[in-house]
Write a structure and sequence with these properties.
The chain has 5 helices and 8 strands. The protein has 167 residues and is an alpha+beta fold. The strands form 3 sheets. The chain has a 3-stranded antiparallel sheet with strand order 1-2-3, with helices on one face.
Length: 167
């Protein structure tokens, strides 16, 4: 069982005997006595995906958390497939939000969510304008509220409201 939730299953990460991953996407080091205190803190790569540094034989490897979840709980990545976030949130690495899919499926999903040609886009220009209008009466917590309402990462909402993107 995962120390973060009673119902969350944990398994050893293949090839890394000192690490476990939970089906909710949390990675734990078992090198010390109390794994509850050694939850690894992932960081974001350039593609916005969470990644962790794992060590084996005195060498460090950086692994994407969503791939670790799928490889551990579903199995190795089939040829021609890649990880697919069902809700388009790269920080949501729960097993229930992930599956193996073709690159074409991933691109189609990105266009459906983005409405643009850019594969990285998560909002349309129209949605950005709606966010700006809704944020005219700013108050503490507006970014969090808009992010939750439209299911958009908070940093994206913040950058839109600051005029750093979708101008």
């Amino acid at each position: 069982m995962c120390p973060c939730q009673a119902k969350c299953l944990m398994r050893m990460i293949k090839g890394y005997p000192w690490y476990q991953i939970s089906e909710c996407g949390r990675v734990w080091s078992l090198r010390y006595r109390n794994p509850r205190e050694l939850k690894l803190s992932p960081n974001r790569n350039r593609g916005r995906y969470l990644q962790v540094a794992l060590h084996r034989d005195r060498k460090q490897s950086t692994k994407k958390v969503h791939r670790l979840v799928l490889e551990t709980f579903v199995g190795p990545c089939p040829k021609g497939m890649e990880a697919y976030h069902l809700n388009d949130n790269p920080a949501d690495n729960r097993l229930t939000n992930l599956k193996w899919a073709t690159h074409q499926e991933n691109i189609k999903r990105r266009k459906r969510y983005a409405g643009e040609v850019s594969g990285r886009a998560t909002v349309t220009n129209e949605l950005a304008e709606i966010l700006r209008k809704r944020a005219k009466n700013r108050y503490r917590g507006i970014v969090t509220d808009l992010g939750k309402e439209f299911q958009i990462p908070l940093w994206t909402v913040s950058r839109i409201l600051l005029g750093q993107t979708y101008q």
